[in-house]
Amino acid sequence: MGSSSSGTAMSVTPAELGRIGGQLGKGGEASVFDLPGLTYPDVPGPLVYKRYRAVHGSPDSLRRVVAARNKLDVVARGRLDSIAAWPVRVVEENGQAVGIVMPRIPGAYFDRVQRNAGVKQSLREVQNLFIDPARAVQVGRPAPTDEERLRVCRDFAGGLAFLHEELKVVFGDINAMNEVFRLDAEPMVMFLDCDAVRPNGVVAQVRQLDAPDWLPPEGGALTLATDHYKLGLFILRCLSPGTGSSVKTDPDAAAARLDTEGMAMLRRALGSNPADRPTAREWEVRLRRLLGESLVPPRLGEVRVDRTMVLSGQSVVVEWEALEADWVEVVAGSRSTRVDGGPGRGRTPVEPETSGRIRVRAGNNLGVDERELGPVRVVSPPGVHQLPIPMPQVHWPVLDVPGPPGLELLPLPRVDLPPEVPQLFTTGGNGVSWPAVPAPQGVGFPLDLQAMLTESPEVDLGYRDGEGAGR
Hints:
InterPro entries: Kinase-like_dom_sf
CATH superfamily of the largest domain: Transferase(Phosphotransferase) domain 1
Shape: elongated
Strand order of the largest sheet: 1-5-6-4-3-2
Largest sheet: 6 strands, mixed
Structural class: alpha+beta
Protein name: Protein kinase domain-containing protein
């Protein structure tokens, strides 16, 4: 049994697989079984055993496929695991390859479809993108929108570009059943039967096939150019579903979905000149442009925070610059604020919980750029506390001083002086005098002001002389 240069084992025996579970699927070349008790530290998630119907002789070519994954760094390996059911171990017995161990296909790539025998769990193969959408819904398959179809084509091209550029392999058997799709997350396409891939320029140990209706015009060995031709067929058929779509080769059928440049690329892809066909990466870029997506990962420019100390409960403001960012996020501990990155610059407040560094993240569909600021110190505001102040008790003396003997108040003298009043007005030189004010001792209360001012007869208000004086 061998190990790759990373130290990870490449081969195992059937006995090392543990208990083999139920059969999950079968095809012309192999059957797939569950491995409920097997885990590997370098592979996330559950595993399955693909057991070949016929042994494949020397396991060297399969070991190369496994080693290609082991050579990747953690990020690239995660990318591969998200787009391909890639072999992670070769199962060997008596010096021959009898199968492979690979990750189990996630449940998001399955549908519950109506069969004659009832409802069945079935892989959502890309051939379901070619049938009439109304028919797809009838049998329990999704009917993607025009935009979702472009996104599936984008991820098909992007996944194939990764295999071509990062792993340097020819996929070979691109057809309607060797890829599955999903609509709820990205990447939206996963490649199957990856044990048949081969390094570019190397003959594959496992036979690479050409499915009917996917035959390149030049024939012969499968190459990067034949992968590019089959990619063009997939794009054409995905974007023009309906009767006869699975055998279409005329690029004009996709004219309603591609722009002028996209149609020119499709004609080159389906042409007879292998060297003129667009690469998978060129297709990914073209489809991203059609979808209005970013073409490069985001990049943060200048970022700064407006202060390095703040009272608890107050915010700091982060000024940022970002290129090709769909969004910008400012993170302080468990609190964060996310804003649109389209303007390219902005000022974003965030309220830190505790002292620490502020993270600024910019992202788009191709990645995330991140920067740290600070640290910012968070301090509590000063509290207000009442302090007890002791006060002395003062006992004031009580003075009991008698007044001077024989001191009596003198009575005030009575003065009866009529007040001087101005005359109201004059008539022909004769002034009109104010009415006489009754003597104080003859006045009763309440006063009859009307009688006093108009000289009208006095109105009896019910009082007797002198009654009002005492009231």
